[in-house]
Design a protein that fits this description.
It comes from Vulcanisaeta distributa (strain DSM 14429 / JCM 11212 / NBRC 100878 / IC-017). This is DUF1922 domain-containing protein. Pfam families: DUF1922. There is one protein chain. The protein is α+β, with helices and mostly antiparallel strands. It has one domain (about 1-65). The chain contains 1 helix and 5 strands, in the order βββββα. A hairpin with a 6-residue loop joins strand 3 (about 20-25) and strand 4. The radius of gyration is 12 Å and the shape is globular. The structure holds zinc ion. Zinc ion binds near residues 7, 9, 27 and 30.
Length: about 70
Amino acid sequence: MYLIIACPRCGNYSVVRDTAKTHQCPYCGYVMRIEEASIIARAKNGKEARELILKLKTPRELRKRP
Ligand SMILES: [Zn+2]
């Protein structure tokens, strides 16, 4: 099982195994405990997790375009 979590410092989403205790944000480098991060979604595998992240990010990225 994979979790999609939001970084408590920068708010970006990243994927982490649900067995992990800590995770380093790839965007800002903050090392968070999984229990302090917001769990956005759960996925069965890495592929599903990446697809979920793409879906979650799409609206924000579309708004940036003119
Ligand atoms: Zn971060």
